[in-house]
Write a structure and sequence with these properties.
TIM Barrel
Length: about 240
Amino acid sequence: MTYLSVNINKVATLRNARGGNVPDVVRFAMDCEAFGAQGITVHPRPDERHIRHADVYAIKDAINVEFNIEGYPSEDFIQLVKQVRPAQVTLVPDSREQLTSNHGWDTVMCREFLTEVTSSLHEAGCRVSLFVDPAPAYVECAKVCGADRVELYTGPYAELFRQHPLMAIDQYRPAAEAARAVGLGLNAGHDLSLQNLHPLVEAFPWIDEVSIGHQLICDALYLGIKETIKQYKAQL
């Protein structure tokens, strides 16, 4: 069974646009849990332009489903994670200036660094997932780094799916099968939607979790968050 983790960064972006606490990010996370989400994802960035460090602590105390914290493993990020101790940490290679994640780790080139960070996070009791492009070599080296899972960056999948859905699936098959072959858990995320989600999990039913934020929150503007979560879970 593939779990749905709702990324609530966009809710924090809306709150921060006006100051104050509307919408209430913590309440929104709790509502997502009540409506059936099996996880909550946040990606605190150094400039706190959406999720703030204070949000991370508050959400951890408020929810009972799996908590996934994404981010670049800077010293500040690692310190935050070790204090909060989420179920999962997803390491991404984002620079401080990036608007959103748009590529995965070169796990071969960064093997020494990622191995050290992964070991440190394991000591804090966290499952570690590495955000990677859909290349078998990167997946296989993630295993060498000690990761528990990889998250396949599905931005290119979503783009190609619009015109060539079968080709999009085939492009991801080698990496998805490599994860299963080496015993890594498999996550997926970025630009997944009600249109392209089911074909992905149907092709690769061993996907453990999808993390969806921007498109899900956009759908919720029209459908409401309760109905949106219901429809996304139906795709799984």
